[in-house]
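Subject: for your reference before the review

Hello V.,

The reviewers asked for a structural picture of the protein, and I figured it would be easier to keep everything in one thread rather than splitting it across files. Below is the amino acid sequence we used in the manuscript, unchanged from the supplementary table.
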Amino acid sequence: MNSNAREHLSVLLSNMTQLPGVYKMLGKSGELLYVGKAKNLKNRVSSYFSKTIEHPKTQALVARIYDIETLVVRSETEALLLEQNLIKLHRPPYNIMLRDDKSYVYIFVSSDRPYPRIASGRGKGKHQIGKFFGPYPSAASARDTLLTLEKLFNVRQCENSYFSQRKRPCLQYQIKRCSAPCVGLISPEDYAKDVENSIRFLKGDTKELNQELIQNMEQAAEQLEFEKAVFYRDRLALLREIGAQQAVYKIKGEADILAIAHQAGVTCVQIMHVRNGKMLGGKSYVPDMLGDDLGQMLSDFMTNFYFQVADEIPNELIVNVDLPDRALLEQAFSQQFNKKIHIKSNVRETRAEWLQLAQMNVQHAIKAQLSNHLELHERFYQLQQVVGRTVDRIECFDISHTMGEATIASCVVFDQGGARKRDYRQFSIQDIQAGDDYAAMRQALTRRYKKAMLPDLLLIDGGKGQLHMAMQVMQDLGLDAFMIGVSKGEGRKPGLETLHFTDGTKIQLAEDHKALHLIQQVRDEAHRFAITRHRAKRDKRRAGSVLEVIPGLGPKRRRDLLTHFGGIQGVLNASEKELTFVPGLGEVMARTIYKILHE
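And here is what came back from the structure prediction:
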């Protein structure tokens, strides 16, 4: 920060109002660095320039501030709501607390008629129209519930495209996980009853469901329909088993339980979810926090979480520390979500047991995170020793395509806190010759660094050729970047990678070197991120004509393939060996088909 900027900020602070409001901190080029709220704008903003500020993240922020803008509001609640709206809109880099902001998993019952589907997905109401249940803290917990529903009620979970193409029952019907509505083996009326029972189960209404199953079992036995009676008996036994497992975890109503812990510079928050009297598990977060007051830190986390990440909020929030602005949060949440929200820290009986469970989980989570935290710092330290310079931020690029089709370039970002997923970027590569990885990398680097700042280390997944191309791009952009190319070893075996430097030198680190482990971790994440997006783009492009893109596979052999396996789904599920059994299809063509469809 130069003297003119310091003088300008000094004048701003001396004339700043003491009313509540929101402040925006701007960088040298006018970029938004941070948004905050304040009960007293002058006191809050002035505190950033105090000599007692010790937190490195705050010091880094202050060093980049060239201007400050303020917006005055009527109350703290208005300031809180405005702050969150601005954060959500602009995503300032120093406001980002949560590294993983993916939506929670929900189970939904689709509105398809006459045979609705039950499945799971992320984000409430963003991908399907129907009834939603949850949220579930992980995909695994949602899958467990779906598996239970399959066993209990046999409602279909397949995609609509697969469902509409069936000519005969699939394996799910054979193992009694589906009633085969696709081929009309169940009437719409009976299927609707199964769907209704599934919804009752998801709502936690199992008491009446139990009674109904008992009546159906007894009625079937009286009519000497013993096979049907056994069917109801097995359902009843499964339902009772699930009820017994969940009895330990029941409390009345809905609640989120939040516990915070701080140790050795690492802060962890554990959230446990209770919906419709059922515990849906929990999830731990490791946010970037400023401050030493656990109550204020949890308050800041809750503000960001419920305004920025969560799709919904229960009426009751149970916390393990006293929040300094509890009343303000209750008012803001109630206003934002149009329902009364209560935040409690002093709880008894079952709620106290839940809070104890959350505190136990957060202690386990912070120990695990601390172990990972120390390991990551050690890896960064060892890398700095190897390259002879400070490295805090690493960016890595990778290219993914299938024989030149649907080329995608990925950019992943790591710092000493781990993967910064919000900073990840993907580039859909256009207007190059198919399969030209150099041109793809050139386009990705140019598009990235025309606007973005350079990292401390730029990793290029490739050898000397890719590195020289990257050097040329930086020269064209007038940038001085510290870069390393990473080429795979003999047989592409991990641990034999060679590091190529811009001065022409190269080194091969020991297989157990922590600096190499960090480079492998970042490179593998870049590869995963690129190939995931590439496959999605490729499969979308191939939808409806998945076989037509395979070279040498004409109309007759495509027809023979589909006839042999009973449709495209059968082809996709076939192994390379099974493909060779198709008349007229040799081993070479079978290998080509399998590779294109799966690799």
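For the response letter, the relevant points are probably these. The first strand starts at residue 21 and ends at 26. Residues 349-387 form the longest helix (39 residues).

Happy to draft the paragraph if you're swamped.

O.
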